[in-house]
């Protein structure tokens, strides 16, 4: 028996040693890292998102961060975390421990106005009564285009945004733009030094998404990617600076698939408790944050869904770029696979992956030479968050929300490209 145990133990150890390191080097939401990704930032209406980041090390570190809304508009900023410091950021106004730019929200175009000269008082020549009060001079107001949107991206996928921020399709692209694309998106932050990205596997983060209208809030943990090269504080670069390779060699790889479970909307899960909606937010691991040379990356989300009787539903899908948010039951194709009527089950599970598909692709329109409408898809690793809203009773207006980061399955390479020429500036806490 002892000999058998020894042989078995040796075999197990050998098996573990022979397991590829890539199987372990995958981002998740339970560990610290040098790169943090927050897939869900929402400042729509009365929503706000509170970001929390902590530095679990006895020295200070600089972070490079990018807000990105659903139209692919980018806004970068910098942070300095002191030793063992936790910080918080209010996405809506940029307040918190540090003053940072707020999350970029669409601002409509402003029509120009000519300068108006001073207008003297006009009086009645007989009575001296004031007919028209004097009017102060008005300076000219220059015309301004719409702010905080990426017009090149909107032109590519064929969408327009009116002065109220309402989104509508104007072309035939299969890529959908979420209704909250101008007021929601994601955040990425990673440790940097004077030469670019560095190893600093001591960062952790979480987000709280608040809905003041419903009086609800939910939390989720940020996805953490460890740097796998060098020592602490040293450059985290295998190939090129200005690009974070999420490949299991430089930084940890991305999940190849995501896995989640849910109770269908409009289902009474226990007496008097109803699920009103399940909102899924997905961020691709193929990200281009280079403002001057930004490239757009598209993929198709493909879902497999199972109910509690183990019946499998296939065919649900959604064409997306590098970020998408929407209700499970409103997926572009076969969204009914997530509904109570179809599942006939109070609980279900799904797996989703991003892959190359001609269904989502389109060629450039040669008649519009000033706009590139071509869309090419690619396989993509995924990060995700799901939020569920509950109502207590029917029509009572008493709500609650829960949120969770999805679980990763398998490994897939990804990247974050950015402009590494910008100098990192230290900022003092308020």
Automatic annotation (TrEMBL):
UniProt entry keywords in alphabetical sequence: Signal
Top-level taxon in the UniProt lineage: Bacteria
Annotated organism of origin: Nitrosococcus watsoni (strain C-113)
Stated name of the protein: Uncharacterized protein
Signal peptide positions (record): 1-23
Keyword Signal: yes
Residue ranges of the region described as Disordered: 117-142
This protein's record includes keyword Signal: yes
